[in-house]
Design a protein that fits this description.
mainly alpha, elongated
């Protein structure tokens, strides 16, 4: 079984420093919960129809944004776990650790050397 390599995001290796964080996601969920509760109440309280419609479209938009954010965050978690994974009962190094060791030992004189290319 071969190692699948790092998780790619927009053609580059996925790094945790990039993109939305957990705080951004929590804020999205709080706003989403508030608007989901407010939307049916706006109908009950006889607010103008256009305002209830706007709230409904805001709910749909927030569902899209929060869904994309959770997918991104799950990919970050998977990338982090893949980078640090070690079998529990193994006393030997993993393939990924051996590859990292080879990369760190390799001379970096040639700036055009991109290393092995996966296809």
């Amino acid at each position: 079984m071969t190692s699948p390599g790092p998780i790619q995001y927009k053609g580059d290796e996925l790094r945790a420093e990039r993109g939305p964080g957990l705080g951004c996601f929590r804020f999205q969920l709080i706003v989403l919960a508030f608007v989901v509760i407010l939307t049916p109440l706006s109908v009950l309280w006889h607010w103008p129809d256009w305002l209830s419609a706007v709230l409904l479209f805001i709910v749909i938009g927030l569902l899209l944004v929060a869904g994309q954010t959770i997918i991104f965050l799950l990919r970050l978690v998977a990338a982090d776990r893949r980078a640090r994974r070690r079998p529990l009962g193994s006393a030997t190094r993993t393939v990924g650790e051996l590859e990292d060791e080879q990369r760190s030992d390799a001379p970096k004189d040639d700036p055009n050397d991109e290393g092995p290319v996966q296809q």
